[in-house]
Structures are given as C-alpha cells and as structure tokens.
C-alpha cells in the first residue's frame, strides 16, 4: 500500500472535561478523497480541528509526510500544506474578494508565488475574477464557498480539510460544490471531506470513515459503504 500522506493515530481530544475524540485512527493515502461521516456531535469537526492544530490532541499522534505535526501551531501546519476550510466559510465583510484571497496567502513568503496562485484561483473560478473588487460578503452562498476554497488554494495545499462545504447551499449548488471538490482532487490535492450529504460524499470519495460518539464505528471503500444496508439506514435516510 502507498505510504499515507496523513496519519492520525489513537487521537483523543477534549473540550475541557468533555471528551470529543476517543482514540481515532485515520489514514489518508496521497491523491485520495477520504470522507468522514457520522451523525451530529459524532466528532467530525473536532477531527479536522485536531489535525489542523485548532484543537490539541491530548493523546495520540498526527503525522504529515512522515513528520510529527501533533504539537505544531495551526499556521505551521498550514504552511506545511495541511489546510483547513472550516464550516461556515468565514468570508470577511468589508474586504473585497481579492483581499479575502490575499488573507489565504499569509503562509506564502514569495510575492511571485502569491501572484501565480491568485491567477490560478481566478482561472479555476472565473466568477471570483469578475467580482474581485466586490465585497466578499455580498457574494451568493455558492460563490462564497468558491471564495473559501480559493482562499485555501492560496496556501498551496497538499491536503485540504473540508468541513461541510455544501452546508446551506441549494441542491444544484451542492452538486456543483461536490464537482469542484472532485476536480481539485483530480488536479492533485488530497482531500479529507466532512460532509452531511452522505450520498454525494460517498460518490466522490475513495474511502470513508464513519464516526460515532468520538470513535471510528465503521470504515471501508466508499463504494462498499454506499451499498452497506446499515450505513444506508443510518445515514442515507433510506
Ligand atoms: P456536527 O455535524 O453537529 O457538526 P460533529 O460530528 O462535527 O457534529 P463535533 O462538532 O466534532 O461533532 O463535536 C463532538 C463533540 O464535542 C460533541 O459532543 C460536541 O457537543 C462537543 N463539542 C464540540 N465543540 C465544543 C466546544 N467548543 N465546547 C464543548 N464541547 C464541544
């Protein structure tokens, strides 16, 4: 098997005394989309936050490219190429589309690389180029999601941690967002995807983990999980 680019080993995370993760193991092979599924409060967001350093793992280890990143601060983790796109998009009001994108390049020191990345983002998302001088918060929900993804791309991610990218979007835009996620993956970015739309997530993912109460309850190839009767019953609303 290919060496995982990201390896989460026996990770336990807490909010004060509340234990949110109870010994999570996740392996992300390079070039894959790995879905993280589970009901509300299962620990999906906490898993992403722990990987990106926003929440500290109190037990266990996280390795990126063979390097232990468990204790690194979030900006160092982002600089190494593990980039978190949190739930809710977090587009800053009062800043233009372009300025919102520039915020994503704080980890990039070389101005030439920043310019090149911005040109790439505008090529991938022409609507952002058209609206580059408009206030980012005035974009539609789908456009704001593109801006959030574009801002993450400014870091030059090797692994994207996407938290519910389709949240709050109309059905057509949900499908479009999943298509964008797939295209980013095909262009070479490895993706760990938390997604409430389990059916679509399993369609684009290679492998999936199902979390329950802070533990890995189930895992397998996405195509196999999509046909697993218990998963279908629990998460696909069948
Ligand atoms: P959802 O789909 O609702 O976002 P989730 O699977 O992402 O759920 P988490 O947000 O990771 O779940 O939450 C895991 C557990 O940690 C839950 O019991 C939740 O109540 C708790 N929790 C999350 N954030 C905090 C916080 N800031 N303070 C205290 N407890 C928290």
Automatic annotation (TrEMBL):
Q: Which SUPFAM superfamilies match?
A: P-loop containing nucleoside triphosphate hydrolases
GO MF annotation: an example: ATP binding
Q: Cross-referenced Gene3D superfamilies, in alphabetical order?
A: P-loop containing nucleotide triphosphate hydrolases
Query: Which Pfam families does this chain map to?
Result: ABC_tran
Please list every transmembrane segment annotated in the UniProt record, as residue ranges: none
The record's section on SMART domains has: AAA
Q: Which UniProt keywords apply?
A: Amino-acid transport, ATP-binding, Nucleotide-binding, Transport
Q: Does the keyword Isomerase apply?
A: no
Domain (ABC transporter): give its ranges. Answer: 6-238
Q: What PROSITE patterns does its record include?
A: ABC_TRANSPORTER_1 (PS00211), ABC_TRANSPORTER_2 (PS50893)
Q: Which domain of life is it from?
A: Bacteria
- Write out the GO biological process terms: L-amino acid transport
Task: Check the UniProt entry and state the signal peptide residues, or none.
Answer: none
InterPro entries recorded: AAA+_ATPase (IPR003593), ABC_transporter-like_ATP-bd (IPR003439), ABC_transporter-like_CS (IPR017871), BCAA_Transport_ATP-bd_LivF (IPR052156), P-loop_NTPase (IPR027417)
Question: What's the family?
Answer: Belongs to the ABC transporter superfamily.
PANTHER family named in the record = HIGH-AFFINITY BRANCHED-CHAIN AMINO ACID TRANSPORT ATP-BINDING PROTEIN LIVF
The protein's name in its UniProt record = ABC transporter ATP-binding protein
């Amino acid at each position: 098997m290919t060496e995982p680019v990201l390896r989460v080993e026996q990770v336990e995370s807490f909010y004060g005394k509340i234990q949110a993760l109870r010994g999570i193991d996740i392996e992300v092979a390079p070039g894959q989309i790995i879905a993280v599924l589970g009901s509300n409060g299962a620990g999906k967001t906490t898993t992403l936050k722990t990987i990106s350093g926003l929440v500290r793992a109190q037990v266990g280890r996280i390795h990126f490219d063979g390097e232990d990143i468990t204790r690194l601060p979030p900006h160092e983790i982002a600089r190494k190429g593990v980039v978190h796109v949190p739930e809710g998009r977090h587009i800053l009001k009062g800043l233009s589309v372009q300025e919102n994108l520039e915020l994503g390049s704080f980890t990039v020191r070389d101005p030439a690389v920043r310019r090149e990345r911005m040109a790439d983002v505008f090529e991938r998302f022409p609507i952002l180029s058209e609206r580059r001088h408009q206030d980012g918060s005035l974009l539609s929900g789908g456009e704001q999601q593109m801006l959030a993804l574009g801002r993450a791309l400014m870091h030059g991610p090797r692994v994207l941690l996407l938290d519910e990218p389709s949240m709050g979007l109309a059905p057509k835009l949900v499908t479009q967002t999943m298509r964008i996620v797939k295209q980013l993956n095909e262009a070479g970015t490895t993706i760990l995807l938390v997604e409430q739309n389990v059916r679509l997530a399993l369609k684009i993912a290679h492998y999936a983990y199902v979390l329950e109460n802070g533990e890995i309850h189930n895992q397998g190839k996405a195509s196999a999980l999509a046909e697993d009767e218990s998963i279908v019953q629990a998460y696909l609303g069948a």
